């Protein structure tokens, strides 16, 4: 094969050689460029020979050298802020041609030109200086059409696997794609999506809605919700670029000059435009950086194209490397100004294989199978600063959204390749292959924990089938949900549980109605007859989990048996604002010591019949308002799942007790405000913080006060106070701060041998202050709880995550509030573990 490539290259070179003139000699001309007014050298002037079609850029002293290939030619000299100069040249040798460039007056502001010994660094300084103007995200507003393709494929399937499931799959695909018959890549997921997007800079918001989508119609289509997090809003102009909860220093960052080395730029003519080509690579190993090439417009210093890859050794869990290509094109706005906007964004994730999936360093094997996730997005039909268009009226009407649009060929802003056409041709054969259907179904069950019946019903999850508690003993639970195949707008769900110790059934039943998924709206009613196992975040650990069986703290059980009906309405108010209105009515029966005035009756904690427990009946109405700028979301099980936002997220909560029935007589008002953020850090990693403050106005029993979340397990929970027990503290006015700084391997990646295991360190610091009015103290004086007083509760910890790309271990120290009757079972020090597959 190499022999044929060599012959083809030699034949092509011979053809090209015949097309070029062959002068007897090719003299080298030297040009010295200076400012006509000041005499100062002008660096990085683009020089280009019109006939010879070769060019170069002057160095920091304004010196330029070019080879003349024709008897006579014209040298074109151009630079931002100067008039273009046309210099005739001949084959006669000339030692030095001195050219005095005239500055353009009246059109540009004053520019100070400084020479540097490093031309690559000097050019990068110019790019950084102009990035505020050239960054498309800084445009006032625009509309655009978006066409995206996402594909997951397996590469390097060896021929010896013929007869196996993957071998059969490979043969089916290659039957339709003859050009890849000698290759060994097999697609297992493919999706096309056409959408429209609106962007506004101030106040900054980005909104989009899907017009049409096309999948393969295979079981693997269900991977879509899991793969949404890999659609990264990658902006090369950002100083710190967040990727999968890691922070990378970009080459166009103000810090980039300290992290990158730049080669001397080349000068090219691309589509008639003078262009610099600048190569860059990281100065040091084990830093979150990139290596690649930038194509820079010589007139505006705007990026025309970027090709980069994460530098070797970056620590991104299961991802071995990310390849990125972005292209930009100049467009003219209403003011006849040239603006640069993105036309294509391609992300190629290469995942680790073999033992490397477990974080065990192994020698790279080019014959091993490897999974790639390729997401390519094209942008077209830009409308710059459209008048009268806002994020509110940008979305289609409800009537337009009611009927899903079929995917049409005109939605493809770029045609399908032969490879992609073969994917669709092979689908029917795959659908009719029983082995393929069985294997993908079992793989989906193992990966997600859910067993799905014909895209109509979902059973599971597997991790919640069995758990345990001191009240229930062993707990068994089975759950069921209806899916989009049953009805695209209505979802019926519920579960049934049974405890071996309390010997009673518990059940929950709910109905969801989602009439609009673009401007999300959901109505839900839930009937509950079970213990409280409420979670506030999607990635928070719940009580029904097999993993908690052996990791429960030796503390009393703090659970409430709930009989409740709940009505809620959730909706998007704008691309950044959302709200949730709810009404609750029901009773709480605590499994721990509880009473309040005027009643002096206290339940017997040893009685598990649940007939002597003091029951609290209450009705409450409340509303949440949430502001999250440019938050990425997806919809799973009809619920909006919030993937990530790198901006601060504000949440406001107001609730009140409404004594509408004779047995609901608590009248109170609650309000809170919280600020949280996943903040990408300049060097590596991310900082998560959640600052919350609130109050409860009114005299209410313990169960209706603010109870900080204590952790009853030795399982790390970043949303809880790990060293605190549930119901240890109570407050009617409070402030809490929860922080976790994941350093991303900033220290461990520099230690020999350890740096091969991709371990990442993290530190934790949590604080809580809460107090209680005297009326509430008297009302709850018989209950066992306390307030922090003047000294806030504090805990700190250090940990290591990414152990085998799966486990984490945290050491947490509780710093104060160590001596009282309430802390007899509190953990002054604990080792907390965690299991989580994440990217």
Summed up, what is this model?
InterPro entries: DUF5686. With 839 residues, this protein is mainly beta.
Structural description of this entry:
The chain is mainly beta and about 850 residues long. Among the domains are: about 25-115, Carboxypeptidase-like, regulatory domain (Immunoglobulin-like, Sandwich), CATH 2.60.40; about 135-430, no CATH class. The protein is about 10% helix and about 40% strand. The protein has 10 helices and 40 strands. The strands form 6 sheets. It has an 18-stranded antiparallel beta sheet that branches. Strands 8, 9, 10, 13, 14, 15, 16, 17, 18, 19 and 20 form an 11-stranded antiparallel beta sheet that branches. Strands 3-2-5-6 form a 4-stranded antiparallel beta sheet, with no helix packed on it. β24 and β25 (about 490-500) form a beta hairpin. It is globular. It starts with a helix and ends with a strand. Mean pLDDT is about 80; it is low at about 1-25, about 105-115 and about 600-615.
């Amino acid at each position: 094969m190499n022999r044929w490539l060599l012959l083809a290259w030699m034949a092509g070179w011979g053809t090209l050689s015949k097309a070029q003139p062959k002068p007897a000699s090719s003299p080298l001309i030297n040009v010295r460029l200076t400012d006509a007014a000041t005499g100062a050298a002008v660096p990085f002037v683009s020089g280009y020979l019109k006939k010879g079609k070769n060019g170069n850029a002057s160095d920091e002293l304004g010196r330029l050298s070019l080879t003349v290939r024709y008897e006579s030619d014209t040298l074109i000299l151009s630079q931002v802020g100067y008039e273009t100069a046309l210099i005739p040249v001949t084959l006669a040798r000339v030692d030095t041609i001195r050219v005095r460039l005239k500055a353009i007056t009246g059109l540009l502001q004053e520019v100070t030109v400084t020479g540097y010994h490093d031309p690559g660094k000097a050019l990068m300084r110019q790019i950084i200086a102009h990035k505020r103007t050239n960054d498309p995200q800084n445009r006032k507003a625009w509309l655009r059409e978006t066409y995206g393709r996402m594909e997951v494929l397996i590469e390097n399937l060896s021929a010896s696997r013929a007869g196996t499931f993957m071998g059969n799959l490979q043969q089916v695909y290659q039957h339709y794609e003859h050009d890849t018959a000698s290759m060994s890549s097999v697609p297992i997921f493919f999706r096309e999506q056409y959408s429209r997007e609106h962007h506004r800079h101030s106040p900054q918001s980005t909104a989009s809605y899907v017009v049409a989508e096309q999948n393969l119609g295979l079981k693997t289509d269900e991977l879509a919700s899991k793969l949404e997090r890999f659609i990264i809003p990658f902006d090369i102009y950002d100083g710190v670029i967040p990727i999968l909860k890691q922070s990378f220093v970009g080459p166009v960052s103000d810090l980039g000059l300290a992290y990158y080395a730049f080669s001397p730029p080349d000068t090219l003519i691309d589509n008639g435009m003078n262009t610099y080509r600048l190569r860059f690579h990281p100065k040091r190993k084990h830093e979150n950086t990139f290596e690649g090439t930038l194509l820079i417009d010589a007139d505006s210093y705007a990026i025309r194209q970027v090709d980069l890859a994460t530098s070797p050794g970056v620590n991104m869990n299961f991802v071995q490397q990310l390849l990125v290509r972005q292209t930009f094109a100049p467009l003219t706005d209403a003011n006849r100004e040239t603006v640069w906007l993105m036309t294509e964004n391609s992300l190629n994730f290469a995942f680790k294989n073999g033992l490397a999936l477990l974080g065990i360093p192994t020698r790279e094997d080019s014959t091993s199978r490897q999974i790639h996730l390729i997401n390519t997005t094209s942008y077209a039909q830009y409308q710059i600063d459209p008048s009268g268009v806002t994020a509110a009226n940008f979305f289609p009407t409800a009537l337009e959204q009611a009927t899903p649009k079929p995917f049409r060929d005109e939605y493809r802003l770029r045609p399908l390749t032969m490879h992609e056409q073969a994917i669709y041709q092979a689908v029917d054969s795959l659908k009719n292959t029983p082995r393929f259907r069985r294997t993908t179904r079992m793989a989906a069950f193992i990966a997600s924990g859910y067993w799905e019946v014909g895209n109509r019903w979902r059973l599971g999850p597997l991790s919640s089938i069995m758990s345990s508690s001191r009240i229930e003993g062993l707990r068994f639970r089975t759950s069921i949900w209806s899916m989009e195949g049953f009805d695209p707008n209505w979802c019926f769900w519920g579960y049934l549980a049974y405890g071996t110790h309390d010997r009673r059934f518990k059940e929950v039943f709910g109905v969801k109605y989602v009439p609009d998924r673009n401007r999300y709206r959901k109505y839900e009613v839930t009937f509950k007859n079970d213990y409280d196992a409420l979670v506030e975040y999607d990635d928070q650990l719940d009580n029904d989990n097999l993993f908690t069986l052996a990791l429960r703290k030796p503390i009393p059980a703090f659970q409430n048996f709930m009989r409740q009906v709940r009505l809620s309405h959730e909706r998007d108010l704008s691309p950044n604002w959302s709200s949730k209105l709810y009404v609750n009515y029901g009773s709480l029966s605590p499994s721990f010591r509880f009473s309040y005035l005027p009643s002096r009756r206290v339940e017997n904690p040893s009685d598990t019949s649940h007939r002597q427990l003091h029951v609290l009946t209450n009705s409450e109405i409340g509303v949440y308002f949430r502001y999250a700028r440019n938050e990425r979301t997806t919809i799973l099980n009809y619920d909006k799942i919030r993937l990530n936002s790198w901006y601060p997220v504000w949440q406001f909560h107001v609730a009140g007790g409404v004594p509408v029935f004779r047995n609901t007589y608590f009248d109170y008002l609650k309000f809170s405000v919280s600020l949280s953020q996943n903040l990408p850090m300049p060097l590596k990693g991310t900082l998560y913080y959640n600052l919350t403050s609130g109050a409860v106005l009114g005299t209410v029993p313990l169960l209706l006060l603010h109870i900080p979340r204590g952790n009853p397990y030795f399982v790390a929970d970043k949303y809880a106070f790990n060293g605190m027990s549930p119901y240890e503290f109570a407050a009617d006015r409070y402030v809490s701060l929860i922080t976790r700084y994941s350093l991303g391997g900033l220290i461990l990646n520099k230690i020999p041998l350890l740096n091969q295991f991709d371990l990442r360190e993290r530190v934790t610091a949590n604080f809580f202050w809460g107090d209680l009015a005297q009326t509430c103290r008297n009302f709850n004086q018989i209950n066992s709880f306390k307030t922090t007083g003047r000294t806030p509760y504090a805990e700190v910890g250090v940990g290591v995550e990414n152990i085998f790309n799966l486990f984490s271990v945290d050491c947490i120290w509780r710093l104060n509030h160590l001596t009282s009757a309430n802390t007899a079972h509190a953990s002054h020090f604990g080792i907390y573990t965690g299991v989580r597959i994440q990217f």
